[in-house]
Amino acid sequence: MAQNIFKGLGVALITPFTVEGEVDYKALAGLVDYQIVNGANFLCILATTGETPCLTREEKDKITETVKQVNNGRVRILKYCGSNNTAAVVDEIRSTDWSGIDGILSICPYYNKPSQEGLYQHFKAIAETSPLPIVLYNVPGRTGINMKPSTTIRLARDFNNIIAIKEASGSLEQVDEIIKNKPDNFDVISGDDALTFSMIASGAAGVISVIGNALPKEFSRMIRLEFKGEYEPARKIHHMFTELYSLLFVDGNPAGVKALLNDMGMIENVLRLPLVPTTIKTKQKMAEIIKDLRI
C-alpha cells in the first residue's frame, strides 16, 4: 500500500519572468536552491501559483527540466497535471515522461461543476492511469465545486495510489472530518498558508505553501515545531505572519509573493496577463512587515 511521501513544507513554486516577459530560468534555478537549503521538504511545480495557464508546453517542459537539474534528487517533486476534461488529463499522463517526478497533483474539474459522483469517476480514471502517487487538490474558490469529505475518503479507500489531498476549502470542519475517517496511508495537506498552523494541529501532514517561496526557513520551522508538539513557539511564528497572509492574496496569487521576492532581490516583479502586480500600497506594507520582523 502506497504511503504519502509529501510531508512538511511543500513550496508551490512561482514562475519568475524577465522584464521582457520571458521565463527567467536563471532566477528559477536560484529560487529552487534557496527553498531547498532553507528547509523545503518538497516542491510543487507548474500549479496555480506558477501561473501555469499562461505557460506554453515548451516552457513547462523547460521549467520541469530546470527544477529537476537544480534539485538533483535532494527533495521530492510534485508536478501538477489537471483539467476539467478527464480524457485530456488521462492522455497527458500517458504521454508525459515522468522521470525525476515523485507524484502528480490533480485538481477537481473546474467550470463544468460535476456532481460528487462525477468527481469520483474523474479521479478514478486518473488513478487507474497514473504511474505515480496522486495528490488530490480541492480548491472550491477556483473550481466552483467542493469535493465533500465523503468523496475524498471514498477515493482514498478505493485507490492505493491516491495518497493525499491538498485541502483548500477553507473549512477546518471539513479537514477534521477527512482526518477522522481517512485510511492510515492517506494524508491531508494544507492548501492555505493562514490555516496551516490549525490544520497541522488537527493532524495534517504539511502544507503546499505560497509564502514558502519567500520565507521557507521561518515557515518550515513553524511546521517542524508543531510536529514535535512544541505548539507555543510554533504559534508565535504563525502570529508573526497573520497580517502577511492576507496581504499576499489581496491582489491575487502569486502577485503578493512575487512582490515580496522582488523586494528580496530574487526576481523581477512581472506577471503574465490576466494577472498584474500587486498595488504599490500593498507592496510597501509587506516590505514594512518584513522589516519589522527583521527577516
- Pick out the low-confidence regions: none
Average the pLDDT over all residues and give the rounded result: 97
Radius of gyration equals 18 Å
Q: Look at the helices and sheets and give the structural class.
A: alpha/beta
Distance between the termini: 42 Å
The count of helical stretches stands at 13
Side-by-side strand order of the widest sheet: 1-2-3-4-5-6-7-8
Largest beta-sheet characterization: 8 strands, parallel, barrel
Helix and strand run? EHEHEHEHEHHEHEHEHHHHH
**Count of individual beta strands:** 8
| Oligomeric state, counting identical vs distinct chains | single chain
Taken as a percent bin, the fraction of beta residues is 5-15%
Helix content class: 40-55%
What shape does the CA trace take? globular
Function: Catalyzes the condensation of (S)-aspartate-beta-semialdehyde [(S)-ASA] and pyruvate to 4-hydroxy-tetrahydrodipicolinate (HTPA).
Subunit structure: Homotetramer; dimer of dimers.
Subcellular location: Cytoplasm
InterPro entries: Aldolase_TIM, DapA, DapA-like, Schiff_base-form_aldolases_AS
Task: Characterise the protein shown here.
By secondary structure, the protein is of the alpha/beta class. It has 13 helices and eight strands. The chain has helices spanning 25-37, 57-71, 86-95, 116-129, 140-143, 149-158, 172-181, 196-201, 216-227, 231-240, 242-249, 255-263, 280-293; strands spanning 8-12, 42-45, 76-80, 103-107, 134-138, 162-167, 187-190, 206-209. The protein has an eight-stranded parallel β-barrel, surrounded by six helices. Helix 1 (25-37) packs parallel to helix 2 (57-71) and helix 12 (255-263) packs across helix 13 (280-293). The longest helix is centred in the N-terminal third of the chain and has 15 residues, at 57-71. The chain is globular. It starts with 7 loop residues before the first strand and ends with a helix. The model has no long low-confidence stretch (mean pLDDT 97). Catalyzes the condensation of (S)-aspartate-beta-semialdehyde [(S)-ASA] and pyruvate to 4-hydroxy-tetrahydrodipicolinate (HTPA). One of its GO terms (molecular function) is 4-hydroxy-tetrahydrodipicolinate synthase activity. Keywords: Amino-acid biosynthesis, Cytoplasm, Diaminopimelate biosynthesis, Lyase, Lysine biosynthesis, Schiff base.
